[in-house]
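Tip: read the tokens left to right.
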């Protein structure tokens, strides 16, 4: 039995409105918040059900808080987003969500995320407040300043890593933080490079910070960041508390970085949104799966056990 025709337009309108609110939260960008799970995995705590639950709740807490930040950014950037070929379709820039309601939605999300973080661990709310303070400074000041804008983006990823460690009561490794910060800085530089390439002459109108960048400058900055990132990761693997078997993960990191640069040079605008690379590029996905599987195998003893069994089996043949 079909619904009356008079109710069908209202139902379609409600569905469209709900989709607009979900899009405004940018669920695709929640993939960045998976970083809060890294301390759980690399501390070897992934088999502790209580800590796994805490890490998952921390993830949702960060997703909710970060979504409130995205909405505020979209409100502040709505005029500039109208000039961007992709961002002009965002719900707030497209006028699908009224500004007063958007502000209220952002506040509700922020409060909900902070409350969830406080439930996970009281100290976690300090990290979440730090993230909100950083993003507020970014939205109003830092995003207009070249270099400071990409450094603040990298700092946001560092806070995600700290939040994950805080949620499960483990200390953060200095090498982990260094690799995280440099990796995030590389992605931020690639994002800005892509924006500069796509927008060309209108780049200044879309983002003031782009005035301080040039393709040559990006080349020089990445020439500094990439070798530093690889060196830091190699030291992290070599000095790992889980043993030097972590060096097995280095080739996957090298391939992933090279593949990302290949995408950047291909003329595709995927690198303007790093989360799209993770969700769409099959080669990056495969490299990430192999890296994660190898890391888990080393940390939880699977690779060492496999090699020991294999060697024992070969010796028994004699």
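Filled-in amino acids:
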């Amino acid at each position: 039995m079909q619904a009356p025709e008079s109710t069908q337009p209202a139902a379609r309108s409600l569905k469209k409105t709900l989709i607009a609110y979900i899009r405004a939260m940018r669920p695709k960008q929640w993939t960045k918040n998976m970083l809060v799970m890294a301390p759980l995995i690399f501390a070897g705590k992934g088999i502790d059900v209580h800590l796994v639950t805490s890490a998952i709740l921390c993830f949702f807490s960060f997703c909710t808080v970060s979504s409130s930040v995205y909405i505020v950014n979209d409100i502040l950037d709505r005029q500039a987003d109208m000039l961007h070929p992709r961002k002009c379709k965002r719900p707030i820039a497209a006028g699908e969500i009224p500004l007063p309601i958007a502000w209220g939605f952002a506040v509700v999300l922020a409060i909900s995320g902070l409350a969830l973080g406080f439930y996970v661990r009281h100290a976690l709310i300090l990290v979440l407040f730090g993230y909100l303070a950083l993003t507020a400074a970014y939205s109003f000041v830092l995003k207009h300043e070249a270099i400071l804008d990409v450094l603040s983006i990298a700092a946001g990823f560092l806070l995600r890593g700290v939040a994950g460690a805080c949620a499960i009561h483990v200390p953060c490794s200095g090498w982990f933080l260094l690799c995280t910060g440099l990796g995030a800085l590389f992605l931020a530089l690639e994002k800005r490079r892509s924006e500069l390439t796509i927008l060309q002459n209108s780049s200044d109108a879309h983002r003031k910070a782009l005035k301080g960048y040039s393709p040559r400058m990006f080349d020089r900055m990445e020439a500094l960041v990439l070798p530093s990132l690889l060196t830091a990761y190699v030291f992290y693997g070599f000095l790992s508390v889980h043993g030097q078997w972590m060096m097995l993960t280095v080739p996957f990191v090298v391939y992933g970085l090279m593949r990302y640069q290949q995408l950047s040079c291909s003329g595709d605008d995927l690198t303007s949104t790093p989360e799209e690379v993770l969700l769409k590029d099959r080669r990056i996905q495969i490299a990430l799966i192999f890296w994660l599987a190898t890391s888990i195998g080393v940390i939880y003893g699977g690779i060492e056990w496999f090699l020991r069994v294999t060697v024992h089996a070969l010796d028994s043949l004699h």
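The chain has two domains: 27-172, 185-318. DSSP finds 14 helices and no strands in the chain.
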